[in-house]
Amino acid sequence: MIFIDFETYSETPIGWGTYRYASSCEPMIVTYALDDGSIECWDRTLHPHVPEHLLYLIYDTDELLTAHNAMFDRNVLRYGLKINTPIERWRCTMVRAFAHALPGGLDILCGILEIEQELRKLKSGKQMINLFCKPQKFRHSVPKSFGTPKERKAAIAAAEAAWTGRATRLTHPVDWAEFKAYAINDVASMRVLDKKLPRWNYEGEELALYHLDQKINDRGMLVDVDLAQAAVRAVEQAKAELAARTVVLTNEEVESTTKRDQLLAHILRAHGVDLPDLQMSTLERRLNDPNLPPEVRELIAIRLQASSTSTSKYQALLNAAMPDGRLCGTLQFDGAGRTRRWAGRTFQPQNLPSKGLPSHELIDIGIDAMRGGYADFMFGDVMAIASGAIRGCIIAPPKKKLVIADLANIEGRCQAWLAGEEWKLQAFRDYDAGTGPDLYKLAYAKAFRIPIGEVTKEQRQVGKILEQMLGYEGGVGAFVTGAATYDIDLEALAKVAYPALPADMLFAAKEFLDWVRDHGNQTFGLSDEAFITCDALKRMWRRAHPMISTLWKETQRAAVTAVNNPGNTVECRRCKIRVDGAWLRIRLPSGRYLCYPSPRANRGKISYMGINQYSRKWCRIVTYGGKFFENENQSLAGDILKSSMPAVEDAGYEIVLTVHDEVVAEALDTSEFSSEHLSSLLATPPTWALDMPLAAAGFETYRYRKE
């Protein structure tokens, strides 16, 4: 095993993406070691030629190459030293950490895994990187006491004339020596990490999938650079016009609605409207308030437009695009926490706008308008059309097309399969065969115990909401969270559902509302009718899904039993739970594991160490059966998607992107390749879930879009 680490210099910001950075960087220091041997440090600023020993290890041996964030080091080797290596030889300690629900930072990992202090990543490393790896502003060290004022001025001018714009071993020899020590220490830390990190989720098929992921990242996707540049121009012009209108509306008191404190103060002082904050959810609620002064309503609308963050993706895309117009390195394998789903990088494709999008026809018109420079004449809200058109920057190369397929309702199918909710599994099979009813209508009919033929269009929407929000032991709070995610008006929902609520559920929900108030708990700002409706719907969904509902508590009890009995496997339907050493592991049917470090059981509750999703700190987190089930479900859905990807590639579809449960592939623009064929590959059950009903659907296009 060769452990390797690069320290590099580039004027390209690392935030522009691994590939864009690596393609223009200068490797300065390379530290490496073979197994437990001595750590070698090649100072390339002193000796420009690659050491013979390193060349021998790379070219004349089959030793594996290990790095922390191997995608970076592999590409620095490839671009900076012109040395290509097979992807299959590479291993990544950062991805291994992600695969086992640990953070990726080398320094925090050393602390979590209790690596000896002298082997940990040096805390001065960040200072050294800021000094040597980035361009530096000129700073002189001529003391004020130096010579006469004229001589001192001349000395400063001479130093500035000699300044190259960067710190080097010649300008900062003492710091350079510390920088080399830092680089050596990184390899020492990585080598110990390699021995301490688990391998359960980073071997066999999962390791092969990591290597496929690296090929996908290397391949990248073709970008319409002209469209991205046109969109940036349109957005900047729109922002300037919005700012100018803000100045007029506020009598020159506020220069832009992005000035939060100024805007809040003006609205309160000039109009007597006290807004608690300028969060999107707050503004969207108040925008429709008929009692708001017209000026405030317009300022809110301007703020919502001007603060759109999705449009900044255009600039990120332009920054990261390679000279050939392809955008590489946008996927982080196992980067989305313990579920081992993909996370986005640079362009953040996992967070593209998904709700409130204009129609495809309108987006196409918007693309032409932005290209032509007349978007402001065509649209009142340029930001909205620009946001909706972001996907359109991903295009097919000449003589090729984009073939896209998405797994249908994969979370609902996994829920039913894991729990053994047989009526629902059969409902999916019947629906896929074209003989069964709409699943959202069925959800409403089962919850309200009415014939499916009586379910109206409005009631079907209620059924859809039930399916989206209630699978993980959530209640009224889940409705509130889901409403923000899916843009649902819970008060409007109550008007549809409340009159049809069964008497027993209505009574139980009213009692619960009284209990909540008696105990001083929150009602989330909902009206009584909306709160009661949400709680009653929760009860009705659970009654209709007894196998799923009972699995939550069953999983909780199994986890507590496992923590209290280390070394013993506790079976919980299709999953197995076990504690070994410092790890609680849930073995999924796929053979992969959900990992929970340092578990504890206290009074029937489970806690573990993890990253808090709000503070982003490593701390103790309390969990529950529904959350375990959610983790199992989402991880399993990811395993199903992953299981199909080798066959997709083998069939000639070159995957360029995966977004949640969707695969985007480039293929020859012939009838041999189709969305129907890709969908059939995607919906092929893996060997470990042959009885799971799967379905997928897709489309073909030359410009990426949301179906």
Quick overview:
The chain has 707 residues and is of the alpha+beta class. Helices cover 48% and strands 14% of the residues.
Structure commentary:
- By secondary structure, this protein is α+β, with helices and mostly antiparallel strands.
- Helices cover 48% and strands 14% of the residues.
- The chain contains 28 helices and 20 strands.
- The protein has a 5-stranded mixed beta sheet, sandwiched between helices. It has a 4-stranded antiparallel beta sheet with strand order 18-19-10-20.
- Helix 18 (410-419) packs across helix 27 (625-650).
- The protein is globular and about 90 Å long.
Largest sheet: 5 strands, mixed
Q: Ends: how far apart?
A: 46 Å
Query: What is the 3D form?
Result: globular
Please tell me the overall pLDDT: 91
* Classification by helices and strands: alpha+beta
DSSP summary, beta strand count: 20
Low-confidence stretches: none
**Helix content range of the residues, please?**
40-55%
Our estimate of the beta-strand percent is: 5-15%
Widest β-sheet, arrangement of strands: 3-2-1-4-5
Q: What is the count of helical runs?
A: 28
CA-based gyration radius: 29 Å
List the helices and strands and how they pair.
Blueprint: E1 2-9, H1 18-22, E2 26-34, E3 40-43, H2 52-59, E4 65-67, H3 70-80, E5 90-92, H4 93-99, H5 106-112, H6 125-132, H7 149-162, H8 173-196, H9 205-219, E6 221-222, H10 225-249, H11 260-271, H12 280-287, H13 294-306, H14 312-320, E7 326-327, E8 331-332, E9 343-344, H15 360-372, H16 375-378, H17 382-388, E10 400-407, H18 410-419, H19 422-433, H20 439-448, H21 457-469, H22 476-486, H23 490-497, H24 503-518, H25 528-544, H26 546-564, E11 570-572, E12 575-580, E13 583-587, E14 593-597, E15 600-602, E16 605-611, E17 618-623, H27 625-650, E18 654-659, E19 662-668, H28 675-682, E20 696-701
Helix pairs in contact: 6-8, 10-13, 10-14, 10-15, 12-13, 18-27, 20-21, 20-25, 23-25, 24-25, 26-27
